[in-house]
Known about the structure:
Number of strands: 3
Low-confidence stretches: none
Protein name: 6048_t:CDS:1
Number of helices: 2
Structural class: alpha+beta
Order of helices and strands: HEEEH
Radius of gyration: 13 Å
Largest sheet: 3 strands, antiparallel
Shape: globular
Organism: Racocetra fulgida
Strand content: 25-35%
Strand order of the largest sheet: 1-2-3
Amino acid sequence: MTSYLEGLIKKEISGLHLNFIEYNKFTECQKVEKFSTVHKSLLEECELPVVLKCPVDDSYDREREFVNE
């Protein structure tokens, strides 16, 4: 299931011109939501505040929701 999710994310990144940035490029991560994995962080090289959202559920519907959001 992980390779499917990775493929789906790569497709969306290339199709929507989103930038992939390695997780270790972020600093000062703070949890924003209690239940989901949404974090506020700083992009290290320019100290730009960003929000990181990570998938936690392996179900197909959750993956589609994550990519489409």
